[in-house]
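Example 545, ligand zinc ion.
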Amino acid sequence: MKFQGLLKPACNSLEDESEKNLDVRVCSRCGSSVLKSDLRANLYICPECNAHLMMRARRRIEILCDKSSFVEIDKGMESENLLGFPGYEDKIRAAKEKSRENEAVVCGKARIGGNPLYIFVMEPSFMMGSMGSIVGEKITRCFEKAIEEKLPVLGITVSGGARMQEGIFSLMQMTKVSAAVKRHDDAGLLYMALLTNPTTGGVDASFAMQADIILAEPGARVGFAGPRVIEQTYRKKLPDGFQKAEAVMECGFIDMILSRFDQKRVIASLLDMHKEEIDGGI
Amino acid sequence: MEAYDIVKNSRNADRWCASDYIKLLITDFLELHGDRKYGDDKAVIAGIGKLLDRPITVIGIEKGNDIVSRLEHNFGSAHPEGYRKAMRLMKEAEKFGRPVLCLIDTAGAYAGVDAEERGQGQAIAESLMLMSSLRTPVISIIIGEGGSGGALALAVSDRLYMLDDAYFSVVSPENCATILWKNNKYADKAADALKLTAVDLKEREIIDDVFKTASSAWDEKTINIYKEKLLTKLDKEYESLAKMPALDLVDMRYKKYRRIGRV
Ligand SMILES: [Zn+2]
């Protein structure tokens, strides 16, 4: 076990404090009760059924990035109620309290296996990683900074899709981010995406599917349309494993499925192999 | 009209659809078929023709206007191969320096098992990337329904226009009401809140201009006046876009989308 260091419980994480009083979590897939401390040590993978359970953005950064290498950018950016949508301010307030984040994505510069890169990690506990203007803006800035500094980008996605309360502004973020991804691509720089459960709707139909290399966690739901809508057109039970990462890989849209225990090693190795020759090559 | 009435009206089968506008505006239209990968999606009609004297590539999401043609065109809900056909022909247009016109009328990209298995999300994602940097002028017009990602996939353009009774939205008002308020009877409230009408979107600088919609009830003279007006406007816009060096054009398009929702 090469990466045992990863299993050490990390300190100072917000979620430990917020969840202290309830020390058992029930696996959403198999229903087993698992001690939170065990679950955390096991990178939120259910020891009974191997389900990769929901994991906070900052915990992901902790296990993926080299120690103390992560420097956050645009942390303070907060959403406004651009359309004056009824109830949106309350939703944002509740999401901030629940997630202790200002928005549904955390961005920054870091190193993985010694390789510098920009990284954005979506936060599931902030309105299910829905795509608002600030999410689009922060991810776009991440790509723009990476272009300036000629660095790769790693994006970790989790999203239920659009943020309806921002209406058309939510939709247009798909275009804004896509245009930045294209510029990064044209600059000859590497973009890798790691899709986690769930990566759907507008995020699937934009930056999740635009990476040079698309990785996914076991069992992650990856797809454009929601299962209930598809059932209406299909008129029978959806095939087993439909829209699960394993099936989506069989269809040709995912490069590799990676357990949380392998992510750092494989991502570091991919970064290594995409390094530009310092001498300029031939 | 109230926002929700606009949405309901945009779904009427007696409206003009993409093929009607192509017949009106484009001469010598030659339809081209297939994505060269899987098949030919009839929800997307595409080809080359002339707008006045200008050769142009036209891509339209076609609903059809009776039950037979609606079934044939899958009610204007494209599969991934529809977007891939569009991309293939956009690249062909770019290669020969020909401008592109997209006519958008869809409730959304098709939500089905086969569409998912052939990469509906990937096809839309690729189209967004391609259009954001296509080195030829692109004008898109939402002529009826502008439903979410399936409409957006053809809306990345130098000029985005809407007809005055079209809508453009991230979600249908019915789904929005069901998800947020657990009841689709609040669809009218959702339609208002989403700010999805042409007037709302012009005000928020999401679209560049609003055109009148055509009506089947018009006499020939009215239709001709309408046609001349629309052709003159489009020709003028293509003329000014064609004067720009391709890189400036792409840069302008980047900035156009870059500023949306910026704080
Ligand atoms: Zn389990």
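Summary: The radius of gyration of chain A is 19 Å.
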